[in-house]
């Protein structure tokens, strides 16, 4: 079985990247490749010299939009006959059993989505955030994520058999939501687990879609959701109602949802 762990890398704090690679090196399951789409991170050779003894690192030099960088990495794995693809962001890190638990559940499912521990510069402040809303080993279908998202590119794994190469619109922000919406609309079976976690780093650049709303973030979120539904509508022709609602939505702070999921507040 050929397993790939896919990430993208870009200029960021070195400590974030070392946290990522340390957690990959310490996985309980060892037989996998680390595929890195390198978008202008200049010290990658230093990283390889440190981690190449423990990890088989494959570097793909590619600089484009975040959406197209993801597309390039996924399609590389499809072209090179990987059986399993595990996603992880290079500014996050992972519990030691993440790959092992994902592989176990992929025996019976097409997609695994695992829980998230939220952390910042002061440490973990919310453990198993998604478990506030969904039970362990619950199946997740498209209806659950139609208006919100739990599938990120740091907490998901997927079987690549019968997956065709993908095309992601380059102006999409919610790339993860789009990709997994398509998979679920194609009747792929997904399961949620909190028996392993991704540590999801919280800072300005990556809290989009989850943080509290103000008028600016509300307008930005409207734009993100419109692009999402417009992209899906080009394939499935069934999201006119969602687009109509967004076009008529007025700014209002919704405090009724505890532990909101991504894009749910809009």
Key features?
266 residues; Spore Coat Polysaccharide Biosynthesis Protein SpsA, Chain A; 10-stranded mixed beta sheet; single chain; globular; alpha/beta
Give the structure's gist in a few sentences.
The chain is α/β, with parallel strands linked by helices and 266 residues long.
What does this structure look like?
This protein has 266 residues and is α/β, with parallel strands linked by helices. It has a single domain, classed as Alpha-Beta Complex (Spore Coat Polysaccharide Biosynthesis Protein SpsA, Chain A). The protein has eight helices and ten strands. Strand 1, helix 1 (14-25) and strand 2 (33-38) form a beta-alpha-beta unit. Helix 7 packs antiparallel against helix 8. The chain is globular, with a radius of gyration of 18 Å.
Individual helix count: 8
User: What is the strand tally?
Assistant: 10
Average pLDDT score: 93
Can you tell me the overall shape? globular
Biggest β-sheet strands, sense, barrel:
10 strands, mixed
Q: What is the terminal separation in angstroms?
A: 41 Å
The total tally of domains equals 1
What structural class do you assign from the helix and strand content? Answer: alpha/beta
Strand content: 15-25%
What oligomeric assembly is this protein in?
A: single chain
Secondary-structure element order, as H and E? EHEHEHEEHEEEHEHEHH
> Can you tell me the residue ranges where pLDDT is under 50 for at least 5 consecutive residues?
none
> Class in CATH?
Alpha Beta
| Fourth CATH level, the homologous superfamily | Spore Coat Polysaccharide Biosynthesis Protein SpsA, Chain A
The portion of residues assigned to helices is: 25-40%
In CATH, the topology is named Spore Coat Polysaccharide Biosynthesis Protein SpsA, Chain A
